Amino acid sequence: MTTQVRIWNHRAEGAENLAGKMRVLYPDVEIVACESVELAVSSANMIVTATSSKTPILHHSHVQPGTFIAAVGAPRKDWREMSPELVAKSVLIVDSVDAATVEAGDIVCT
């Protein structure tokens, strides 16, 4: 089994910097800095987002059916990581329903 981690950042140098650090820590894992979100997630079976984006960066068309997404960013009502279409077509699991329905921008605005 080949393990590959793909990293994307809105600043290319940020993605490459993190990828370089990860390569040192995990020399047996292929770490790739990607130029676009689409390239980073196109064939992924797991996606982790941790952003402060105010607009969606991850769209339904980017994600394969059955992909696990851990969207841990967008903790404010006015922040978004995922498009409304992606959220609507997902099975949602949250650690706190009360907090998610008040704070999680991806959920509040869907």
From TrEMBL:
GO molecular function, one term: hormone binding
SUPFAM superfamilies to which the protein is assigned, alphabetical: NAD(P)-binding Rossmann-fold domains
Taxonomy, superkingdom: Eukaryota
One family name in Pfam for this protein: OCD_Mu_crystall
InterPro entries with a match to the protein in the record: NAD(P)-bd_dom_sf, ODC_Mu_crystall
Family of this protein: Belongs to the ornithine cyclodeaminase/mu-crystallin family.
Protein's recorded name: Uncharacterized protein
